[in-house]
Specification:
Largest sheet: 2 strands, antiparallel
Number of strands: 4
Number of helices: 14
Strand content: under 5%
Length: 253
């Protein structure tokens, strides 16, 4: 028979936390790295149960598989130089990427489907759209394995400056070098849609606008209505909460 404290603990664990960082879309509270790792790797078929033997196959086999897809990525040695992943980690990531995308590239529809598994309680499609555009560095409507692992390397293991530059590029929707109030409003609405309507405690309808106002009050130093890269970097590097969120996924994989 469960105790009252056990019931309360179970109830608390089911509550959805609405405290998300407006810069990253990630929870502000310190996550359990093991849980994050499990959630991330769960999206990669190569890391699901029963697949451990595939990771231990020879390097020769992995190199050979790189030439079997329609789109041929760069060799693992070169990608190892471009990213902060080891060759073994790249092999694991490549197997998962290829299983999801046999053609060697992922389109936006598939990307949104994969990303939605992280946020089943809400609608993550718009935020995933913005994220896809950030990954699609060639602006051709497709994300290759190289695009994927280079961005992932920055997000997970890049320097603070690299991560902030990547985040700025994500929220600079038209890529003109500054973030406007309209762009940040679109981002905020996409984050709240992703979180879902049944978060606890309930959010006010004005919450997205309040976050945008707070963002510009902090970031827009000269009050010209836009946030430049310089303003963004300077403010973020002086904000303890933002700096903590930048380290959230360090060594997740």
């Amino acid at each position: 028979m469960k105790s009252r404290s056990q019931d309360q603990s179970l109830s608390d664990s089911r509550e959805l936390d609405r405290s998300y960082d407006p810069l990253t879309g990630n929870p502000l509270s310190k996550p359990n790295k093991k849980t994050l790792k499990q959630r991330f790797l769960k999206l990669l078929p190569c890391c699901r149960s029963g697949s451990s033997s595939s990771i231990n196959q020879s390097n020769t086999t992995d190199e050979g598989e790189l030439s079997t897809v329609w789109y041929r990525p760069e060799g693992l040695d070169r990608l190892e130089q471009k990213t902060k992943f080891s060759k073994k980690e790249l092999q694991v990531l490549y197997r998962g990427f290829k299983n999801e995308c046999p053609s060697g590239v992922v389109n936006e529809e598939t990307f949104q489907s994969i990303y939605s598994q992280f946020f089943p309680q809400g609608d993550s499609s718009m935020y995933a759209h913005f994220l896809f555009e950030a990954f699609d560095t060639h602006n051709n409507g497709a994300v290759s394995f190289e695009d994927f692992v280079i961005s992932l390397s920055i997000i997970l293991r890049g320097s603070i400056t690299d991560k902030l530059n990547w985040a700025f590029n994500l929220y600079d929707l038209n890529k003109d070098g500054c973030i406007t109030r309209e762009e940040m409003t679109d981002i905020m609405h996409s984050i709240y849609d992703m979180m879902g309507k049944y978060t606890y405690p309930n959010m006010k309808d004005s919450a997205p606008k309040d976050h945008v106002d707070s963002f510009f009050q902090k970031m827009d130093k000269n009050n010209d209505g836009v946030v430049t890269m310089e303003e963004f970097l300077d403010t973020c590097q002086k904000d303890e909460n933002i700096m903590q969120s930048m380290h959230m996924f360090d060594n997740v994989i």
